[in-house]
Every structure is written in C-alpha cells, then in structure tokens.
Design a protein that fits this description.
By secondary structure, this protein is an all-alpha fold. It is 67% helix and 0% strand. It has one domain. It contains 5 helices and no strands. The termini are far apart.
Length: 92
C-alpha cells in the first residue's frame, strides 16, 4: 500500500492557488476552501477560550475528534477536486 500513497500537498502547491489558502498547503487550510464546510480552526479557538462552558468544551472535543477521523476522507475529496480540475484543464 505504501507505494500508492501520495502527498497531495505537492500537487496543490504546484497546481492550485487560492487566496484563502493564505500561502499554506496543509489539509487544514486546503480542505475548507476546496470542499466547503465546517472550519475546525474556529471550533478549536472556541474550545481554548477561557469562558467556554465545560459542557460546550465536551461537545467541541467530540466534534474535533470526529473531524480528525475524517482527515483521510478529506484527502480523498481534495484528490477528487484536483483530478477534476486537471480534466477540465486538459479539455481547454
């Protein structure tokens, strides 16, 4: 399986630009831009905020753990977006 693994960061770095990446190519920056949805960074900030209620922290922690489990799926979705972009560029 290891020979099949690819670092999508290189593909994004060399072939995709979006100002919302803020010059970064990590999954946490690329995923919300290419596959719009929840922003885990905002959840983390709320979790770290001293005034956040313990019950809310518990819920955010659960959500963040669930988000982390989805990293592989996020990578697959980013790969699908990149492949589609490549197909469209070839047609032009």
């Amino acid at each position: 399986m290891l020979p099949r693994l690819r670092d999508l960061g290189k593909a994004v770095d060399h072939g995709v630009f979006d100002k919302d990446f803020h010059g970064r190519w990590g999954l946490k920056k690329v995923y919300p831009v290419l596959v719009p949805g929840a922003d885990p960074a905002m959840m983390l900030l709320e979790y770290l905020r001293p005034g956040t209620a313990p019950e809310r922290r518990t819920e955010i922690r659960r959500q963040l753990l669930q988000y982390c489990e989805l990293d592989t799926w996020a990578t697959v979705q980013v790969l699908q977006v990149l492949r589609e972009e490549c197909r469209q560029r070839r047609r032009r």
